[in-house]
Amino acid sequence: MSGAVSPSPSNDAVTRKRGVPEGIWMRCDACRATLFRRDVERALGVCPACGHHFTISARERIRQLLDPDTFEEWHADLLPDDPLGFNDRRPYPERIAAEQKRTGLREACLVGQGFVKGIRLVLAVTDSNFIMGSMGSVVGEKLTRAIEQATRERLPIVIVSGSGGGARMHEGILSLMQMAKVSAALGRHHQAGQLHISVLTNPTMGGVAASFASLGDIILAEPKALIGFAGPRVIAQTVGVKLPEGFQTSEFLLKHGFIDQIVHRHDLRGRIAQLIDYVS
């Protein structure tokens, strides 16, 4: 038809620009620098600008510490129950299912055996992404079985703790019982003359800090990790005094003899191998 005007392209089509894909950049929690995510990943989850240690997953921790393709996972089939019929904002089984889908984990810790620079050991890692790495009955059972296996096979055990949740309230007394159970297993491991290296990361709190995380023959910690039972704000409100500067950081605890060494993440694998070789 004469005089007909063809529709002009939409403004979106004309001005569409190629955007930056999501997830390319990230912000440091400590110095607030904008960082290229791939640079942080190459640095093992450490800020290239200020050295802040980001939280990393249990599987990533295993990849960083162990020789490639040597990890053999144990007790992956253990799943939590709901003994109390617990319900806060959602029923406990729903919460567990959501955490499993989000993290790709079945529970808040992974245990198994592997090699560090050719040295065989048992490794257990808690993951703060799964209900803050809290210790429920499955976490306690997996840790206990791993420790007992290490005792039978006369192997050192390394436990990397990242728990801001302590004992898991959703399971009540069954969760609190795990503190004693895991501690007793570590006592038997110690009596058998075997080495337990405890690695504390940010945060290590509550019942985890009050039990197996504090029972290492050698206790290592990452820089500026928050470590303690109750949080500093709760303690300050309870006792009514101003807490010392840096209270409950790994630097404060090293100064007061609670931990043995602060080890940068880049050096952790080599330090663990060195300590096991030295003790053995």
From TrEMBL:
Cofactor (UniProt): Zn(2+)
Chain residues that bind Zn(2+): C28, C31, C47, C50
Pfam families: Carboxyl_trans, Zn_ribbon_ACC
Top-level taxon of the source organism: Bacteria
Domain CoA carboxyltransferase N-terminal: 24-280
Cofactor: binding comment: Binds 1 zinc ion per subunit.
Mapped zinc finger ranges (C4-type): 28-50
Localisation: Cytoplasm
Catalytic activity of the protein: N(6)-carboxybiotinyl-L-lysyl-[protein] + acetyl-CoA = N(6)-biotinyl-L-lysyl-[protein] + malonyl-CoA
GO cellular component annotations of the record: acetyl-CoA carboxylase complex
Keywords: ATP-binding, Cytoplasm, Fatty acid biosynthesis, Fatty acid metabolism, Lipid biosynthesis, Lipid metabolism, Metal-binding, Nucleotide-binding, Transferase, Zinc, Zinc-finger
Signal sequence, renumbered to the chain: none
GO molecular function, one term: acetyl-CoA carboxylase activity
Pathway: Lipid metabolism; malonyl-CoA biosynthesis; malonyl-CoA from acetyl-CoA: step 1/1
EC number(s) from the headed UniProt entry: 2.1.3.15
InterPro entries: AcCoA_carboxyl_beta (IPR034733), Acetyl_CoA_COase_Trfase_b_su (IPR000438), ClpP/crotonase-like_dom_sf (IPR029045), COA_CT_N (IPR011762), Znf-ACC (IPR041010)
GO biological process, one term: fatty acid biosynthetic process
Family note: Belongs to the AccD/PCCB family.
Record note on quaternary structure: Acetyl-CoA carboxylase is a heterohexamer composed of biotin carboxyl carrier protein (AccB), biotin carboxylase (AccC) and two subunits each of ACCase subunit alpha (AccA) and ACCase subunit beta (AccD).
Protein name per Swiss-Prot or TrEMBL: Acetyl-coenzyme A carboxylase carboxyl transferase subunit beta
Organism this protein belongs to: Isosphaera pallida (strain ATCC 43644 / DSM 9630 / IS1B)
